[in-house]
Amino acid sequence: MSWWPPEVAVHAEQFRKGLRDLGYVEGRDITVEAHFTDGNRDRTRAVVRKLIEDKVDILVVSTTPAIAVTKEEAGSLHIVISLVSDPLAAGFAASLSNPGGNLTGMTTFSPGLVAKRVELMKEIRPELRVIAFLGSSRDVNTGTFLRNMQTEADRSGLRLIPYLIDGPARIDRAVFEAMRHEGAEAVIVQPIFMGHQERIIHLANAAGLPIVADYSLFAHAGAMFTYGIDDHAQMRRAAYFVDRIFKGAHPGDLPIQQPTEFRLVVNAGAAKRFGWAIPLSVLARADEVIE
């Protein structure tokens, strides 16, 4: 189950691939249902309750808000988490090495990711002075995300303009025009808005602002570059935890794993449209370059 909309259905497919790689045959060994609740808390709660009624064995849940709702409803049902930035700060686990309770899985937490994005922006455009941040006022991880970004912006001599909205419905042209009016030259987008990348990039482009984000879906939709964990690899890895639980392991005894695979995807065409020249040093490090 994902807090994101159906536009990120590729995550479910990657999870299924992870199961196939472990030898599972869907329909013979395992049944997988995929649910996308598009940031709707009531819909998320209804899905969880229905899955409990259906007596599912394991819930694989992506994103912090969805896990928070799931933990409220799921009782002792086994939970595998994925694409969660900080399960300790969110109160989901006692520790990474020994999470306890009925939960285990993967976190996206990796010190330095936020700093690396800002560093890349400065490497691409040394004269950069002002950046904006589009974040969620309802995500418990936003504060940490913003503090880390402010620290790196200060270190890099950048002014950071934060814009926090309470959901995707609040994403409109006026937000990006306000950023531009305040002098923003580019926008970093919080990953909670994945699935709405097409609209975000369309509106930002109309305001003359390039986008930088975590996940490659944004780069393929027209963001200038993305740098973050390999979300596809993490969804495939979720299958490992499901396999361990099916074989008798208790979730709370399985350490929550931190990411080891990262991807830099550069959209050279998008950069060119905004007059940003991507240095060869960045292109050489990219895992993928979109022309």
Automatic annotation (TrEMBL):
Superkingdom, according to UniProt? Bacteria
The record's annotation in SUPFAM superfamilies points to: Periplasmic binding protein-like I
Q: Which Pfam families match?
A: ABC_sub_bind (PF04392)
Q: Which InterPro entries match?
A: ABC_transpt-TYRBP-like (IPR007487), Peripla_BP_I (IPR028082)
**What is the name of the protein in this document?**
Putative ABC transport system substrate-binding protein
**Native species:** Microvirga lupini
